[in-house]
Amino acid sequence: MTAHANERAVDVRGLRKRYGGVRALDGLDLTIRRGEVFGLLGPNGAGKSTTVEILQGNRSRDAGEVSVLGADPATGTRAWRSRVGIVWQDESTPAELTVRETVRHFARYYPRPRDPEEVLHLVGLEAQADSRIKSLSGGRRRRLDVALGVIGGPELLLLDEPTTGFDPAARRRFWDLIRLLADEGTTILLTTHYLEEAETLADRLAVVAEGRVVAEGTPDALRRRYGGEAVVTWTGPDGSPRTERTGTPTRVVAGLMRRFDGEIPGLTVTRPTLEDVYLRLTGQEAVR
Ligand SMILES: Nc1ncnc2c1ncn2[C@@H]1O[C@H](COP(=O)(O)OP(=O)(O)OP(=O)(O)O)[C@@H](O)[C@H]1O
């Protein structure tokens, strides 16, 4: 909890955006509190990147109210920009510079930057510090982008699919970095297609579909509200598989224990995952 915990870092009301005939945002509402890690989920084309770009001040909107750290991004000053960390999708940094030179170079743009060596360590690029950017693999390139997003010591970090292209170890390391920044009080918005990532990192989530928020809450609350019933399976006395869908799996298991007088053969209890919730909310639920 930070001193600002009840303040809003991001407040969006009725956000609308069209690209020609395409309605990308259709009345999106979003509130992110200070110090919170907030995950934005949604299928391809739902409007997540457009939202992040508008919050960054890099895209205009057609309608709606937007406040980011107390300012309208459309008219954000240089001082405001220095408080917001952005990870660009296609960074146009000079490919001839080394990783260390680039991070140091970007640090000079900010009034209170983090230590470049610390940032290289945090994103796991110490071993590549003297490599030229053009020689980096795609995943390491992306880690450098993340380094440039945090070098200014932002109050708010806006991350659009930050771990796409990361190998599993780099993704875990990135999660540690996000937790560290969150512990320091940084507010973080991240979009992701990795539900495990959302569940691991986010205090609260919003699911976006067709340009609107269709559900919002903690991962637990979303699972409880939209997850549906648990599934209990076991093996019957005749050896055949049995299944029961239930809102009270403990009661079902207690009944089975009495019936079997001890160990229940083949018992499993499966509770709805965030993925089940997500697929249901975005209308992509598989027919079972
Ligand atoms: N520059 C653009 N010009 C025209 N249409 C665009 C542009 N950017 C986005 N769109 C369209 O707006 C809609 C929302 O796109 P957006 O990139 O915001 O979605 P997204 O949720 O980030 O998707 P993804 O998960 O694929 O990144 C899509 O239909 C997309 O094709």
UniProtKB/TrEMBL annotation:
Main location, first listed in the record: membrane
SMART domains, sorted: AAA (SM00382)
Membrane topology of the entry: Peripheral membrane protein
Compartment(s): Cell membrane
A GO molecular-function annotation: ATP binding
InterPro entries from the UniProt entry: AAA+_ATPase, ABC_transporter-like_ATP-bd, ABC_transporter_ATP-binding, P-loop_NTPase
UniProt xrefs under Pfam families: ABC_tran (PF00005)
Domain ABC transporter: 10-235
Record's keyword terms, sorted: Antibiotic resistance, ATP-binding, Nucleotide-binding, Transport
Gene3D superfamilies: P-loop containing nucleotide triphosphate hydrolases (3.40.50.300)
PANTHER family attached to this UniProt entry: ABC TRANSPORTER ATP-BINDING PROTEIN, ABC TRANSPORTER ATP-BINDING PROTEIN NATA
Family note: Belongs to the ABC transporter superfamily.
Protein name: ABC transporter ATP-binding protein
Taxonomic source organism: Streptomyces camelliae
